């Protein structure tokens, strides 16, 4: 009986350690993907500035949300639960574009050209899918998003274009994402 108790407690400790290590690995990956997604907004803003296009593109946003719903289903997330997160992510992305446009009105960048929009959009789609996959993995194996994970993520979100308020809004929306319930 004592042997059984030792084996069970060892298994539980290993499981706890595994969950902690998955948690520790997933959050930096998630932050890196989010930082990269926000970083490429410079290219989007540059393209829109060069082509005199508005930052606001509602048909594009609807398309992004539909693709996110599909990707969410693929990684076992409840598609409706990602709406606030995706919309917050898009709002922050637009804010970043506006900041670049304002800065360029005062002081244009001379030695920089935006990458082709088709290439940038493909990268954004890839990042969006990766972000949803990492969120799903964090919820499933890393225990979700609690206060400790929120603080760590806030620290790791280091794109200079994101305000503390935007970080808080993004992390709050992240906490609302749920795994998809399979029919019984």
UniProtKB/TrEMBL annotation:
Superkingdom: Bacteria
Matches recorded under PROSITE patterns: CHORISMATE_MUT_2
One Pfam family named in its UniProt record: CM_2
Signal peptide residues on this chain, from the entry's feature table: 1-19
Chorismate mutase domain span: 9-101
Entry's Gene Ontology BP terms: chorismate metabolic process; salicylic acid biosynthetic process
Keywords (A to Z) from UniProt: Isomerase, Signal
Enzyme class: isomerase
Gene3D superfamilies given in the database record: Chorismate mutase (1.20.59.10)
MF terms (GO), sorted A to Z: chorismate mutase activity
Catalytic activity: chorismate = prephenate
EC identifiers of the protein: 5.4.99.5
Pathway: Metabolic intermediate biosynthesis; prephenate biosynthesis; prephenate from chorismate: step 1/1
InterPro entries tied to this protein: Chorismate_II_sf, Chorismate_mutase-related, Chorismate_mutase_periplasmic, CM_dom_sf, CM_II_prokaryot
PANTHER family with a match to the protein in the record: CHORISMATE MUTASE, SECRETED CHORISMATE MUTASE
Purpose: Catalyzes the Claisen rearrangement of chorismate to prephenate.
Name of the protein in question: Chorismate mutase
Organism for this UniProt entry: Enterobacter sichuanensis
